[in-house]
Amino acid sequence: MEQFKKKLETIIDFDVKEIDTSWNENHINNLEGKYNIKLPQDYSYYLQHYGNDYIKEDYHFIPPEGLSDKIKLTQFEVDSFYGLYNDENNIEDKINFYKDLLPADLIPIADLPGGDLVCIGIQDNTQNKIYIWFHEMDGENIYLVSDSFKSFIMNFKRINVEGNKIENVNLNLSNKLNAFLTNASKK
């Protein structure tokens, strides 16, 4: 569990984390009872000690090799994980919002840019497994990406992301506009 905790603390963007609340087993039991589900220990641990987290932009989930052949993606940026705190990433709100869009054996646990979701299986063959749901994909749009929440988290890798630094910005200005701005800056 120590390796798992260390990885979570590496990928969570604590600079934007506004919530410093720990939850107890009763909170998890209430969630499970309300939705008639049993959450795996690794995900329960996450909900109790973290939750409602944004992920650092330079950490992406690297899927298993076979998956990228089907969907042509070799990495996934995860925006935020849901949690128990009552904000825009509240897991109960997300479960209720997506209940008619997702299969009954999945609940959403995180979102990706553009509206796709990371989900966890809650019944039979899907139990405790992690899936990605692609909302705009026709036909098969749910893919298994990990056998557990812990292995999902452990497959986040640091990716060299070119940030918005002044050295990376190229402006294409017309000669007339460039002359105007140069002249205005001298005044």
Automatic annotation (TrEMBL):
Record-linked Gene3D superfamilies: SMI1/KNR4-like
Pfam families: SMI1_KNR4
InterPro entries found in the cross-reference section: Knr4/Smi1-like_dom, Knr4/Smi1-like_sf
Domain Knr4/Smi1-like intervals: 22-155
Entry protein name: SMI1/KNR4 family protein
